[in-house]
Design brief:
352 residues; alpha+beta; Phosphatidylinositol 3-kinase Catalytic Subunit, Chain A, Domain 5; 11 helices; 10 strands; 32% helix
Length: 352
Amino acid sequence: MGRNFWIGLAVLFCCATPAAAQHPLFADNSEVSITIEAPLTTLLRTARRNTDPHPGALILTGQGEPQRYNIVLSARGMSRRITNFCSFPPLRVDFENNQLRETFFRGQNELKLTTHCRGNANYTQLYVLEYTAYRLYNEISPMSYRVRPLRVTYRDTEGRRDQDTQFGFFVEDDDDVARRNNRVALDIETGVARSSQLDPDAAARVALFQYMIGNLDWDMVESAEGRDCCHNNRLLARAEGDMQALIPAPYDFDFSGFVSAPYALPPEGLSVQNVRTRLYRGYCMHNDRLPAAIAHFQSRREAINALIAGETRLSDERRATARRYIDGFYEVISDPERVQRQLVDRCRQSAG
């Protein structure tokens, strides 16, 4: 055997380690049980005003011997955190200063924890649906956030709240999504990236996915004034400083029609009365990529239907409603006249 063979074999063993082996947290979709101990009374009381960190602990159970990690816990997000509608905000879990190398949380640092809005079964269904929306986009593109379902027990170290167990899920870190796809997650201000710098095929897929789930709470290149780019999307570049062929990776789907949260409202300025009503917001400059995007979604229909059917945490009624909502999307993209009328003719212009 020649020298090149052994070099190639060495490269194979050195560099072909699967991402799942490096990041066991997102290696599969089985539910993980954790307990979070923190001064929850104070955190929840002050969440509307600030996102100050609080010391706490995360205890992993169901994976052999319980594993305890010191964490820093903080509220995050905007709409759910600063309004009076939800009694519990989304959280950020910081594993800083933990020795994670040989543990279940190997490769993690900060994680977004999507929590319940209110503590009843109807709200649990909403966040199972949002978790499912992430999984649906996993079926469309690898440039997507992985999620891990959780059974979270919340224990207030101040002793003023009853212990409570709820569904939740961790969302993969931005940089991990990028590294897994040999990309770099850009950290830029709004207005820096232009729609003409987006990868047209990826942009068409993202816009079509958002139409599929009935989501209007996003933008691929803009965000609210004073906030980083981009609204509920992270741009993935081929290299740091490379501003061409940018790929948007969407997240946060609780304002979508697919989830249909009671606090979700359409953005101001759009002729939509209800989040269940679809409105295409893809760019006109990418209309020529729509046929390929539609064909790709058609090819994934069986997998998407199977994913919804297999989500046993959904009630039969919610599962049937979710399936009908997605079927409505496929009825549109299977009809050329409706594609023209509801997508192509509804596209939005871009400044460049």
